[in-house]
Fold:
Amino acid sequence: MKFKNTLSSPHITASPSLTRTMLWVVVALVPGSAFYVAFFGTGLLINMALATLTALASEALMLRLRRRAVLPFITDGSALVTALLLALALPPFAPWWLPVLGTLFAIVVAKHLYGGLGYNPFNPAMVGYAMLLIAFPREMTAWLPPTSLGATTPEFLDLLNYSLFSILPADSTYDSISMATPMDTVKTRVGLGETISDIHLSSPGLFSTVSGTGWDRVNLMFLLGGMWLIYKRVVAWQIPFAMLSTLALMATVFWLIDSEQFSSPWFHLFSGAAMLGAFFIASDPVTAATTPRGRLIYGAGIGALTYIIRNWGGYPDGVAFAVLLMNMAVPTIDYYTQPRVFGEERN
Structure:
C-alpha cells in the first residue's frame, strides 16, 4: 500500500516575503494613480520618478554609511513604497526639489536615523510630507484645476519644464496653478461665514455629487486597491475599517446637526487622502498597532483626529498628522491590548 508523501505538522503557512508584500502594495496603487493622472495630469509621474530616484540613492548612501549590505535592502521595495506614497501626497504641479527634499527627509531622518526599517516609530512618507507642508506651504498648494475624465490635461513636457526650471510656455493657459483643493476651499470659506450650499453653487466644476471633482473616483480606485490588499492579507482589515467608520460616523453626526456648516460623510470619505491613508498609510506594519484590538483603537483614533483637524485644525486634510500622532500612541496601545496568554489565570 502506497502512502501519499505529506509534510509533517505543524502546518503553518509561511508569510510572504517583504519584497513580495511591497510589490503587492505597488500594484494596488496603480488604479488610483492612473485616475490621478487622468484628472490632474502627468505631474504625478514626474514626482514619482524624482522621489523614487532620491529614495533609492539616499537608501544606498545611508546603508553604506551604516556599513550594511546595500543590495538586500535596496531591493526589498520599502524605499520605493515610501517614495510613491509621498509623491501621491504632493501636488502634481510642484518644483523638482519638493519631492526630492521630502523623500530625502523621509529616508534619512524618519527611517535610518531611527535604525532603519523595523525601528522607525513614525511613517516615513508622512514625516516627509508634514515637513514639506510646514516648511513650504505655498508650494504645497500648487494644484491644477481638476478636469473631466478624458479631457485635455497639461502637456508632459510643460509640466517637466515647470518642475525643473519653473518655466511655462508663453501661450500657456495654466497661469493660475495655486488652486485650492475642494477640502481647502470648504474649510477656508466656511471659516469666512459662507454655507456649504453657497460654496458648491459658486464653484462650478470643483465639486461633484459625492465630493470633489476627480477626487471621488481617485479615492474609489484606492478603495478598490485597498480591498484587494485585504483580500491578499497584506493589510489587516481592522485599521482601515476603524478609521473610515469613525470618520464617517463623526461626519454624519455633525452633518445631521448642521449640513450648511459641516460637509457630508461622503465628502469626507471620498475627498483628500481618506482612502489612501486608510489602506496604504495607516496600515503600515512597522508603525501601526499590532494587536487585533489595538488596531481598532489605532484606526479609530486616526479617523477621529482626521475629522477634528479637518474641521477645527490649521490644515484642510488631517490624515498625515493624525497618523503621526497615533504613531506615538502605538507602544501604549499595544501594551494595554495584548491578548491573554493561553493558560494564564485571570485575577
